[in-house]
Write a structure and sequence with these properties.
The protein is α/β, with parallel strands linked by helices and 290 residues long. 36% of the residues lie in helices and 19% in strands.
């Protein structure tokens, strides 16, 4: 065997080994799943709920929980963060059921009882399938999309392709590529592109009201990220800063719960500013009526 060919094969094998290692390193960094046995029984105090399973076109099973409110005004599709399973995330459903909204939570592939090979494309398809099933029972004008951290990108994508009542983003990222690059600068873009999740691109196509909640002391995803996102569709967007809030503790702040209550009970219609002081500030004057 020629020496040059041997060297080429060594380089190729080294490249494959590094690529595989970076692949699993990315999975480890981005996803912290908690797996649950099939016979696990969910339990939530003072909450009415039912478990469900959805089979996808590639035979994966997406497991979820539907939390019930008394006389619901609508339903919140809650897309959680990158850790654990809905076993622990389910406790946050009460923040919406107490405001009169049903809550649907799902575990992404490889989390909880959900199965299937995970990829950005597969997760997006799974969530659209869930959304479509909700639409068969609830009109879109009663559907609220809520995305927390990792889930914010998927929520933005769903909102860009559908017509929900509103989109709520909790500690969102500009794009997952930027977040990962911040903590793993040595990883090449070719690997990062597996989960780019460009929230900023998808927000451009969102037509419903956008509410962004972010802690000012968030060390993982800086508050300035939400400031930047809020400028993409300024007429439809409102930013809610949780003073001194971090990335994982917003539910410990009374201000967060006040914001959430205000948001879900707000009128999603665009405000008419024709009679407001904004025109005076811009030097415009209304004509006096005789």
């Amino acid at each position: 065997m020629p020496r040059w060919l041997l060297v080429l094969m060594v380089i190729l094998l080294a490249y494959i080994a590094i690529s595989v290692a970076l692949y699993y390193l990315q999975e480890y960094f981005l996803f912290k799943p908690e797996k649950l046995p099939k016979d696990f029984q969910f339990a939530y105090e003072n909450q009415k709920f039912e478990e469900y399973n959805i089979t996808t076109r590639d035979n994966a099973v997406i497991n979820g929980i539907w939390f019930r409110a008394e006389k619901p005004k609508g339903v919140v599709l809650y897309l959680k963060g990158n850790s654990k399973s809905i076993k622990g995330w389910g406790k946050f459903a009460v923040d919406f059921t107490r405001n009169g909204y049903d809550v649907i939570m799902v575990d992404y592939r490889g989390f909880g009882k959900s199965t299937g090979r995970r990829s950005a494309k597969a997760i997006k398809h799974d969530l659209q399938l869930v959304y479509d099933k909700i639409k068969k029972r609830v009109a879109e004008k009663y559907i609220i999309l809520y995305g927390r951290s990792l889930g914010s990108g998927f929520a933005a994508k769903l909102a860009s392709m559908n017509n929900p009542r509103m989109l709520i983003l909790d500690a969102p990222y500009y794009s997952l590529t930027k977040v990962t690059a911040r903590y793993m600068p040595f990883m090449p873009l070719s690997v990062l592109i597996r989960y780019p999740l460009p929230t900023y691109k998808w927000l451009k196509y969102v037509q419903c009201p956008i509410h962004i909640i972010h802690g000012t002391h968030d060390k993982l995803i800086p508050f300035k990220t939400s400031v930047k996102l809020s400028r993409i569709k300024p007429k439809l967007t409102r930013l809610y800063p949780v003073i001194e809030g971090g990335h994982k503790n917003l539910n410990n702040f009374e201000s967060y719960h006040k914001m959430l209550t205000e948001i879900v009970n707000s009128d999603p219609k665009e405000i008419d500013l024709s009679d407001s002081s904004i025109h005076v500030a811009h030097g415009k004057k209304r004509k006096r009526q005789a």
